[in-house]
Design goal:
- This protein is mainly alpha-helical.
- The chain has one domain.
- 65% of the residues lie in helices and 4% in strands.
- A two-stranded antiparallel sheet has the order 1-2.
- Helix 1 packs across helix 3 and helix 7 packs antiparallel against helix 8.
- The longest helix has 23 residues.
- The chain is globular.
Length: 200
C-alpha cells in the first residue's frame, strides 16, 4: 500500500483545485473541495490502488469490476456530473439533472488540476479537453451542463487560463445575481431592474 504517496497526490491536487477556485472567486468551494477523499472509504482504497500517473479508482475498477472509493466519492461531491444522475419523470429514464453553475465551474477547476497532477510536464491547456473528448461518449449529463463544460474546455484549449477564468468569473456573477432575483418579491425585482420611478 502506498498510502503516503496517495495522500501527497490528493494534497497536491486539492491545492491546485483551491488555487483555481480562488481565481474564480469560489473561496468556500476551493477550501471544501474533495474533503471526502480523506474519509476511510476513499483513503484506504486510494492507497491500495495508487498508480501515480492515473486515478487509483481505475485500478480498483479493473480488479473488482467497480470502484468502492468512486461510488463513495461521487455521492458526496456535487462538482461531479455523476452526482446529478436521477430518474427523469419527463423522459421516463435515468438522465442527468442540470447542475448549478457554481458546480460546473468547480468541475472545470477540478479537471484542470487533475490533468496537471497526472500529466505533469506533459500538460497543456488542451489536456482537459482531450480527456473530455475521450470520455464524453460514456456521460449521462444534462445538455446545458454539457454545453457549458465543453465550451469552457474549448476556450481553455484555444485561449488559455486567463481568459477562461475571467469568463468563469462572469458566469459565476451572473448566476449569483439570478439567484438573488429569485429570492426577492416581484415588486422589489421590478424596482431593482427598472428603477423606482418606472413602478409608479
Amino acid at each position: 500500500m502506498q498510502l503516503r504517496n496517495h495522500i501527497k497526490t490528493i494534497n497536491h491536487h486539492k491545492m491546485e483545485v483551491m488555487k483555481n477556485c480562488f481565481r474564480v472567486k469560489m473561496y468556500r468551494q476551493g477550501l471544501l473541495h474533495d474533503l471526502s477523499k480523506y474519509h476511510p472509504a476513499e483513503l484506504f482504497p486510494g492507497g491500495k490502488y495508487f498508480q501515480g500517473d492515473r486515478s487509483p479508482n481505475a485500478a480498483e475498477r479493473e480488479e473488482k469490476g467497480y470502484s468502492s472509493a468512486w461510488l463513495h466519492h461521487k455521492g458526496h461531491n456535487r462538482h461531479h456530473w455523476e452526482y446529478w444522475i436521477d430518474f427523469s419523470l419527463q423522459e421516463k429514464r435515468i438522465a442527468g439533472a442540470p447542475m448549478p453553475v457554481c458546480y460546473v465551474l468547480e468541475m472545470v477547476c477540478d479537471r484542470i488540476a487533475a490533468s496537471k497532477t497526472y500529466k505533469k510536464d506533459a500538460y497543456t491547456d488542451a489536456s482537459p479537453l482531450e480527456y473530455y473528448k475521450m470520455s464524453r461518449p460514456y456521460y449521462i449529463i444534462h445538455p446545458e451542463t454539457d454545453r457549458m463544460l465543453r465550451e469552457l474546455l474549448e476556450m481553455l484549449a484555444r485561449e488559455g487560463e486567463e481568459k477562461t477564468f475571467a469568463k468563469m468569473r462572469r458566469l459565476l456573477g451572473e448566476s449569483r445575481r439570478e439567484a438573488v432575483k429569485k429570492r426577492v418579491p416581484a415588486f422589489a425585482r421590478r424596482w431593482l431592474e427598472k428603477g423606482w420611478n418606472s413602478t409608479k
